[in-house]
Amino acid sequence: MNASFRRAIAGLLAVPAFAIAQAPVVPYSGSMPATSAPIPVAPPSVSMPVSLPPAAAPDAEPKAEEPAEPPQRYLLDGLFARTAVGKNLQDKGYRIYGWTAFSQNLSSASNNNFPRTLDDRANQFVMNQNYLVLEKSIDTSKKEFQLGGTLNMILPGSDARYTVVRGLYDRQLTDNAGLPRPYPIDPFQFYAEAFMPNVGPQGTSVKVGRFATHIGYELVQAVDTPFVSRSYMFQTNPFTHTGVWATTPLNDTWTISNGVSTGADTFIDPANRATYLGQLKWAPKDGKTTIAFNTMVTDPTYDTREAFAFYNYYGFVGTHQFTDKLSYVLDIGYSHIRNAPLPNGSTGFANWYGAAQYLIYAHTDKLTSTIRAELYDDAQGFRTGTSGLYTAATYGLQYKPMPWLYLRPSVRYDHNTNAPFEGNANLWAATMECIVRW
């Protein structure tokens, strides 16, 4: 890590007070999600998230002694429950629901906000997600064998341009003329899940299929992540994995998860490589602090034949609940790859790393403020096309005038002295996002 980044990250880790006051740019030639392969710059001609995450690990399971509260029912779920069949299925844990997320941003950029990805379309109205969820939940408080699963679909949405994986509907990303499609679809998650009560001290849950990554704090799902824009660490590391993921609570404090996948953002494709997934989570019962160590390990050598990035990741997410209203999150990650094509035309080692802090304050049950401050170094420019230290600061509000309606205005500033933003070192953007749950 260079000296400037070490000094900067030391400053970031010491600023709770402030919080309070892919590779080179190349032509698109197939499925290249932002987190798996070089990020293509959308041509200028292409007209290019809500409840905030709790101060706990995003996928934490409810304790057996403290079952989760009944979920909020929205329009589709409510209509489903009015039928005799639907009521019977809901009693058995089946649900159907979704949301539509759309946004308008005003940017200092002319054409796009790249290398920001999911909100790359500058000065445009965008339908980010039409997101549908079909699921059969598992209740781990019941000490009995259970089967469940989920299907999540972006139907369609601009976010799918980056979440579509290699080997699964990736040809839809371009039209017959080879131009990017602005609104593809993506079966973002589909997996079967089994709960085995006799495996491990408190049972084990196993997922098989395509599932969202355990890495990092932010999520693709608009209703479960704080901003329409995402951190650089989020957008340059995995979105999903295809394989097996097993979660075993060791006691009321420690949980261990292990898995094997085909890589980062690949389905069944020649660009597959056996990859280990792991997580160790410390979350004391009734505690105010959680810590999760996450990893993804494979042979981190760029696949030249398939033009695909296989890399290793090591990270940490810590959360702390200061008061009933104020919570804090620290997300740190490091990734590296070998024999990667670099922007300067050479081939070699590349690494990218960063830290993001979040301060979340609930003013009322309906109004929440969130601040995100991030430092991110794409040391060789492999993930964004421009090397150097990125700094970014975002502030946003979430207002829920009704349970099914989220209004989320935000402002964001990005800086990199190597001028990646249409030749500029600075980028300013203000965004208004609306999420309608149904």
Task: Explain this structure.
This protein is mainly beta and 438 residues long. The protein has one domain (22-333, 398-410, 418-437). Helix content is 9%, strand content 42%. The chain has helices at residues 3-12, 16-20, 75-81, 84-91, 160-163, 232-235; strands at 94-107, 125-136, 146-154, 186-196, 204-212, 240-249, 254-261, 275-282, 289-297, 312-321, 326-341, 347-362, 367-378, 388-402, 405-415, 426-437. It is globular.
How are the secondary structure elements laid out?
Elements: H1 3-12, H2 16-20, H3 75-81, H4 84-91, E1 94-107, E2 125-136, E3 146-154, H5 160-163, E4 186-196, E5 204-212, H6 232-235, E6 240-249, E7 254-261, E8 275-282, E9 289-297, E10 312-321, E11 326-341, E12 347-362, E13 367-378, E14 388-402, E15 405-415, E16 426-437
Antiparallel strand pairs: 1-2, 1-16, 2-3, 3-4, 4-5, 5-6, 6-7, 7-8, 8-9, 9-10, 10-11, 11-12, 12-13, 13-14, 14-15, 15-16
